[in-house]
Write a structure and sequence with these properties.
It contains 5 helices and 5 strands. The chain has helices at residues 14-26, 37-43, 61-70, 86-93, 108-142, and strands at residues 6-10, 30-34, 49-53, 77-81, 100-103. The chain has a 5-stranded parallel β-sheet, sandwiched between helices.
């Protein structure tokens, strides 16, 4: 990991949120938590990656994904569910470009693997953003705009 990433955990079960958050912290991530989809919406712009429960008390993780993607936020997301299979999740969530999916119960090894993959994608997104800004500046300078 190039720098400590901020992970947003959106999970309404306090025990799962605590276990997941502790594992991520032990891996060197900074963790912020939300117990509702609305709480997650309030924090997502600060996050480098997200672990998202698909079943939340206010509205579903699918609706949450739909809303952030519609707003132009493509933060890497690892979706989680105890009631959805890997295959079903991939079919239903493909349009939201999630990084990965974890069935509950999950192992601590799975958390590490999926967080690592999401962190790599976060780095790639950041790199592309910086490269785009530099290219835009270069083009403006070539066109005589300052």
């Amino acid at each position: 990991m190039s720098d400590p990433k901020k992970v947003l955990v959106i999970e309404d079960d306090p025990a799962i949120s605590a276990i997941l958050g502790k594992r991520l912290e032990n891996l060197g991530y900074t963790v912020v938590r939300a117990g509702t989809a609305k709480g997650g919406m309030d924090l997502v712009d600060q996050a480098d990656l997200v672990f998202l429960d698909l079943r939340l008390p206010d509205y579903s993780g699918e609706i949450w994904l739909e809303r952030i993607r519609a707003a132009g936020n493509y933060v890497p997301v690892v979706a989680m569910s105890a009631v959805m299979s890997q295959e079903t999740a991939r079919e239903r969530l493909e349009k939201f470009q999630i990084v990965d999916f974890m069935e509950k119960p999950f192992t601590l090894k799975e958390v590490a693997e999926k967080a690592g993959r999401a962190a790599e994608i976060s780095d790639q997104i950041r790199f592309v953003g910086h490269a785009s800004d530099r290219l835009k500046g270069f083009i403006e300078r070539q066109n005589g705009k300052h």
